[in-house]
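Inverse folding, one chain.
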């Protein structure tokens, strides 16, 4: 289930990794619906475990995921004064 969304999330991750926005390679392992419009994308990576995504069906999951991920990375940067690095924190 949610295989299309998983593929779209991976496309975003690959793009952000290739343009240097992510300091590590992430693989979208699973996309799950938590409830209603709340989704979670799970990774198997010690630096980032998951990203919560609010997505309304009929809109772009890819866009919602990208926005959620970039927002998370920006909040992390503002909080610590640095971008994500290997082995740090969770996305939750």
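Residues assigned per position:
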């Amino acid at each position: 289930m949610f295989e299309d969304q998983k593929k779209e999330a991976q496309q975003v991750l690959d793009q952000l990794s290739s343009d240097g926005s992510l300091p590590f390679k992430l693989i979208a392992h699973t996309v799950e619906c938590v409830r209603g419009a709340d989704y979670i994308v799970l990774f198997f990576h010690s630096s980032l475990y998951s990203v919560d995504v609010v997505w309304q069906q009929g809109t772009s999951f890819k866009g919602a995921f990208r926005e959620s991920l970039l927002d998370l990375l920006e909040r992390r940067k503002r909080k610590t004064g640095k971008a994500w690095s290997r082995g740090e924190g969770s996305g939750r």
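The beta strands are 28-35, 38-43, 50-54. The chain has two helices and three strands.
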